[in-house]
Records
---
Amino acid sequence: MPAKPRRQPHSPRSAGAGAPLLNLGPTSSKWLAAVGIHDRRDLEAVGVINAYNLCKAHGYNVSLNLLWALQAALMDIPWTQLPADIKDQLRQRLEQS
């Protein structure tokens, strides 16, 4: 059986307008587009908590993983590397929103 192709190491993406967001698959990207978030600049302007709440308000089946992915995208890290203390802060902010 042939070996699986190796994934390319993570490289930070440009923070410019239209820059794609790390961590987001096609479904999450469609949800964000439906609420007016198309790129990194849009996400920065709206904020991750508001973006999450907008998706939820539109009836999408969001989970905390979306919130982690959004924050990690702004930090240019894989969502699985988002530190626990940041997750805790995001949970608190979400509860207060």
---
Amino acid sequence: MSEAVAQIRVFPHEATSDPALVGLDVSALDQMRDLFLSQNARGLYPGGQLVVRRHGRVVLDVAVGLGRGFRDGEAPQPVGPGTLFPMFSAGKAVVAIL
């Protein structure tokens, strides 16, 4: 197993740290989480996961909605920490900024 795959499997088991300990505004993080959840509740996307890390620590990890179950005969599966999402080229814009 490659090192990258091993890291992916470990990530969902990390404990969430207190955002204040890594210098984040807790109220701003709460607003981000609430916006993410409300967008799902309004049907803007079927499911997703929002993870915020700072200084190597997970400070927010929220999964909501369905990750599978939209095709005929496919059982609904809720999004969880181990749900994989096809990102294709979506990360290119983020990398370009760095």
